[in-house]
Design a protein that fits this description.
about 25% helix; binds shikimate-3-phosphate; 12 helices; alpha/beta; about 25% strand
Amino acid sequence: MPAVLSGAPHRRPGGAGDETSQMPTDHGPKPLRATRSGPLKGSLRPPGDKSISHRSLMLGALAVGETVVEGLLEGEDVISTAAAMRAFGATVTRGEDAVWRVAGPGVGGLLEPEGVIDYGNAGTGVRLALGIAGSHAFATTFTGDGSLIKRPMGRVLDPLRRMGVQVIARSGDRLPATVRGPDVPVPVEYRLPVASAQVKSSILLAGLNVPGTTTVIEPVPTRDHTERMLQAFGAAIDIETGEDGSRIIRVDGRHDLKPQHIVVPGDPSSAAFPIVAALIVEGSDVTVENVLLNPTRTGLLETLIEMGADIVIENRRAVGGEEVGDIRVRHKRLKGVRVPASRAPSMIDEFPILAIAAAFAEGDTLMEGIGEMRVKESDRIAAIAAGLVANGVTVEEGPESLLVHGGAEVPGGGLVATRLDHRIAMSFLILGLAAEKPVTVDDAATIATSFPAFQGLMTGLGARFEEATDG
Ligand code: S3P
């Protein structure tokens, strides 16, 4: 049996990388309760952006020489990517100053991992790594936790098969899965059937080791971090807008990438939790600093502003080739809105916390075209609907939509099943800060995948949490 290479302990046993010694070692479920809190006041800096953090370590491994990364998100998902890149032969180290260094073997120079790569809860990590591994002529086997092994991998395995990659996966193209690249992979032109930055990125990363031009056609724009970072690393990449408005991204493979110095901006998907908390907790005035404002990620801010939120963006500046700003939010009664389907990709991870804002808004909020939510860390439409109902909020769940009937008061008092989903856990803890009765989540341990400092930073603003031994 090959050893299991596991960067972060997750919620299953496995070896841990050096830097995980700072992380909690007890990974049993951790029930947590949030209680109505006084005004939230002060400022905080969210952790580094998760998407950019994964890509920094991956592109660092695919460049020849040393890439330096400041502000990396040290959450379990990204630690899994650090472990995966080590398994492919990269040297990945963390200095005492929390600066990470990646010395890459470079495109085409990766080594065959000795064991199974356990990616824990990290969908982005494993889908991008499948692309990297798939274009190399060796076998790599990936697995994950109870959430990840249920998620669809066919969306990246299908284009990889077209490149000539051999795949053995569990039924329905689920993990565990093994990919083995051919000696000479075939370049493809692939039109994305789902709006997914993960699929786009997986193909582009595979394309780096394919002779010739790999083309991805994206009918609906999704987050563009892979393209921006590939440009910065000196890849032969070209982006064009088609006649129908789609983005056509071409990458020429088998060129060397140049190592970079990366400064990771704050994660807007993590910033979303204190932002909504400040809006719904009476008397609050909170500034969330250093937040990435890339337009492919700002759908939640746009929606909250339409709902009447008091949000001011201060100190706009450039960090590492991306726009960032400090977001000042003051409590304000919101009104319900209809969120158009076209906005979904720019706020795909923010619907759980938007649903919490919607519960406190006057009138109905309708979220449409959110079918992708059903294949995230959990079926998020079902998880949000069940959590809101348990706390006295009326919702209407459609196959690809969610309608939340808002009200000035949310009864609360519910126990929420978090289903191994960090964003469900954080969203309902935020609900509890403003609901009439405390709200309990059955497991807050998953929050460490993306926002390990969540509880401490929110407590610093005045949020009230307590361990809930009675679940
Ligand atoms: C991500 C893309 C999104 C998002 C995920 C991170 C990325 O997924 O949900 O958390 O870093 O590429 P899809 O674009 O596949 O929907």
